[in-house]
Amino acid sequence: MNKLKFIYIFTIFSPLYLSTLVGKITPSQPTLQIKDTQNSRQIQQIEPNNTNANLFEQNRDLILKFTKQPHFTKSSIKCFFRHTFNNPYYADRYLPFDLSHILTFSGFASQTVKPREYLFNVISIFEQKLFFSGFINGYEFEEFLKNYILLISQYFNQKTEKEERINQIKEKLYTLLCNDFDKLKANPEKILNETAISIDLIATNTSMTQDDIDLPISRLQDAVLGLFKICLSDLIWSPVDHIKIWKSIKSISSMLEECLQKQILIDSHNLNQLFWCLIARFSYFIALWGNNLPESFYTDIIDEINSKPCNLWNIKENDPLLLSKFRHLNYILNQGTLRSKLHLNKVNLLPVQQDKSSS
User: Fold this and answer.
1) From CA 304, how far away is CA 52, in angstroms rounded?
2) pLDDT the model gives residue 59
3) What is the pTM (predicted TM-score) of this model?
4) Is the pLDDT of residue 264 over 60?
């Protein structure tokens, strides 16, 4: 594991972990604490002290246990689930900052007989923990997505799945004509109906009668979509890294578009759903931390989206009456600019509300 990430994870096991903002820090750097005042939220720095160093030593074994990657053996996987995955701290204090275990288990798919079904199960298992994570580090998800696409894209080959279905149908017809021909002559209506039903199940990817047949690609696509929605809906960034935030969002959106190109996503409708998840989470982040972001943060993004192409706009809304992603984001950013200006003059505003006007 990256040494910087290892050192950072220590902070979430300290009493300050709930008040520590997402960002790459070390014990020698000041951490950030959220302080609620009567009318607004403020960020305060907490200087490092010996207590943090002591806590790091106390939690060293636990952190090492969490950062350890399992091997594709029965004993190693059993050890992981018993001591890491089921640990009460794993979901809310570790998984939001490190999704590498999902990558590790997904990498084992190539060693299984039915890789798509295996990947489906991996997603199902980790989704349960992600429900309890509360948030996901935006930069960690960006890195995860890049590696995850490389790992799983090979299992969405529609041509291969079509060949598998053709072979199944041929095998079914061969059995009918060679082995069950006497039954066919004796009761043709019944046998033909049974054969037609079997072929229909194969053609519609709903046949689960053969142990050597892998999960349909469409089922895995649905599972991946659900995983991405959970992660995107919980993304958070650090306001002190405001220069990186928009770059991170553009990078994530580009990789989501790549998922559609590689057939990891079913269609553009699914991609549009994920784009809206990403924009909604960015809007929520601004609603929380908009006062603490400099005016240049907003104006730079506004200038860019109004002058340069952005893949977030590549997918249009289904109906022209619906608010477009472009107009929604423009509204949020303009409101954020106003909040930033007023905050400099110590004037507090209510959180940003979404624009109700149509596009």
Assistant:
1) 41
2) 67
3) 0.73
4) yes
Give me the mean pLDDT over the 119-137 stretch.
Answer: 95
Question: Token digits for 330?
Answer: 């423009």
**Per residue, what are the HEC states of the chain?**
CCHHHHHHHHHCCCCCHHHCCCCCCCCCCCEEEEEECCCCEEEEEECCCHHHHHHHHHCHHHHHHHHCCCCCCHHHHHHHHHHHHCCCCHHHHHHHHCCHHHHHHHHHHHHCCCHHHHHHHHHHHHHHHHCCCCCEEHHHHHHHHHHHHHHHHHHCCHHHHHHHHHHHHHHHHHHHHHCCHHHHHHCHHHHHHHHHHHHHHHHCCCCCCCCCCCCCHHHHHHHHHHHHHHHHCCEECCHHHHHHHHHHHHHHHHHHHHHHHCCCCCCHHHHHHHHHHHHHHHHHHHHHHHHHCCHHHHHHHHHHHHHCCCHHHCCCCCCCCCCCHHHHHHHHHHHHHHHHHHHHCCCCCCCCCCCCCCC
Over the stretch 138-165, which tens digit does the pLDDT of each residue have?
999 999 999 999 999 999 986 666 677 6
Angle, to 10 degrees, between the axis of helix 217-232 and the axis of helix 242-261?
170
Please enumerate in sequence order all residues whose Cβ is within 8 A of that of 85, keeping only pairs 6 or more positions apart, or say none.
Answer: 101, 129
Summarised one tens digit per residue, pLDDT across range 32-50 is 333 444 333 333 433 444 5
Residues 244 and 139 sit within 8 Å (Cβ to Cβ): yes
Tokens encoding 135: 């948030």
- In angstroms and rounded to an integer, the radius of gyration of the C-alpha atoms of the chain is 25
When pLDDT is averaged across residues 182-207 and rounded to a whole number, the result is: 73
Cα(156)–Cα(47) distance, integer angstroms: 49
- Reference 312, options 243, 257, 244, 262; nearest CA is 257
pLDDT band at 203; cut points 50, 70, 90: low
| CA–CA distances in Å: residue 348 to residues 33, 201, 269, 321, 341 | 20, 61, 38, 33, 10
**Inter-helix orientation angle 268-289/325-344, to 10°:** 10
**CB contact set of 193 (below 8 Å; sequence gap of 6+):** none
